[in-house]
Amino acid sequence: MTAPLLPRYGTASLAEVLPSVLAALGVPGPAPLPLPPVRAACVLLVDGLGTELLRTHAADAPFLSTMADAGPLTVGFPSTTPISLASLGTGLPPGGHGLVGLSFDPGDQALLDVLRWTRARDGKHVDQRDLHVPEVVQPSDTALQRAAADGVVVTAVAPAFQRESGLTRAALRGGTFRGVLALGDLAAEIDAALTGPGRRLCYGYHSDLDTLGHVHGPGTLPWRLQLRQIDLLVSTIAAALPPDALLVVTGDHGMITVDRAPDFDTDETLQAGVSLLGGDARARHVYTTPGAIDDVLATWQDVLGDDAWVVTRDEAVAAGWFGPLGPHVAGRIGDVVAAMRGGTALVRSQAEPKLAKLVGQHGSLTSAEQLVPLLVTGPQS
Q1: Structural domain contains residue 214
Q2: What is the DSSP string of 145-164?
Q3: 175 has which bridge partners?
Q4: Helix H segments across 157-312?
Q5: pTM passes above 0.90
Q6: Which Pfam family, any one, appears in the UniProt record (predicted)?
Q7: Quick one: which H or E segment has residue 172?
Q8: Residue 64 in contact with residue 231, Cβ under 8 Å?
């Protein structure tokens, strides 16, 4: 079995991006990635923009493909949107900020979905922001807060519904939030955020490439046509950059096309000894009943075979999957952790019916999912 691609925390991961941008703006702190000094900077995260996909479809992204690439970066584990946004927003690996999966047990023997910040109850998503306060679940200051505290004018530009979301509060709090609806006002708000006196930092987010990859598959015609629109978006933003401003474009993960989908909800062998199953289809947290860890580990390794890397929590932590752990984070990680290989997705047809049907998935430790670009344009780029 080939080895997983381990995240390069501390040197070349998504967690190093904003600290390096802050250093370029003159905010005291580490600068692991070399960026030129600037007055203003925008970090635009394109959800689902993986290095391998961009290279394969460079003809559909002529502007992006000619930008200087200081990457590729690894995004961390699991390679899933809320984990990656928390790493970007805090400058910490998952073990540091504590968002260790799409869903995980925060300590009360039930799963918290940190993308929606909800729990499933009677087929509905029940808000958990009062019970599991985002600023408590992830208490570290964000990079946006650190920039604002140093006098930088900070703006976050993202879909309007994200304004008070649990994930925004946990990972990207700080500065002024500007809600947008489409590509046009995203570009306009980024331009406005960088224009004006003094040091300025803008975080921008766009999600549609990821959506089409999930529904149609990465690299399909709908996905490629969306990539063309994003290429135009980035070239439009770059054309309006002030001369002393920097634009950094990156992604939160790549994506694979599913060709095998074993179903936990119909497999009694996999269910034996499991009290909770968190994570997502490519990265599962397996919480076991008392005394069942060894049996569950052996069973999952046997059933999944070469379709997954299956290890204990201690093995995953020791191997560096999550990076150094902060206080109270270890218990959020499953007793057993399963990272899928190839085109395998371990789905839940009953508990996660919509997710189970997605053609494109991500979350694991393959290069297709882990590697994202770090595209830079502006002074000295």
Answers
A1: yes
A2: HHHHHTT-EEEEEEEGGGTT
A3: none
A4: 166-171, 183-194, 208-216, 221-239, 268-271, 293-304
A5: yes
A6: Phosphodiest
A7: none
A8: yes
The tens place of each residue's pLDDT in the chain, 381 residues long, gives 789 999 999 999 999 999 999 999 999 999 999 999 999 999 999 999 999 999 999 999 999 999 999 999 999 999 999 999 999 999 999 999 999 999 999 999 999 999 999 998 887 899 999 999 999 999 999 999 999 999 999 999 999 999 999 999 999 999 999 999 999 999 999 999 999 999 999 999 999 999 999 999 999 999 999 999 999 999 999 999 999 999 999 999 999 999 999 999 999 999 999 999 999 999 999 999 999 999 999 999 999 999 999 999 999 999 999 999 998 999 999 999 999 999 999 999 999 999 999 999 999 999 999 999 999 998 865
Tell me the two tokens of residue 282. 């490519």
Q: Helix, strand or coil for residue 283?
A: strand
Tokens of 378: 């502006």
Burial class, 339, CB count within 10 angstroms (exposed 0-12 / middle 13-18 / buried 19+): buried
- Asked if residue 236 is part of any domain, the answer here is yes
Per the structure, the complete domain to which residue 230 belongs is given by 14-96+126-254+368-377
What is the number of structural domains in the chain?
1
Residues in the chain: 381
The tokens for 86 are: 């928390």
Cβ-count burial 260-293 (b if 16+ within 10 Å, e if not):
ebbebeeeeebeebbebbbbbbbbbbbbbeeebb
Q: Which amino acid is present at 2?
A: T
- Short-list 9, 1, 15, CA closest to 250: 15
Give dist(CA 364, CA 377) in Å, integer.
30
- Domain assignment present for 84: yes
CATH number for position 90: 3.40.720.10
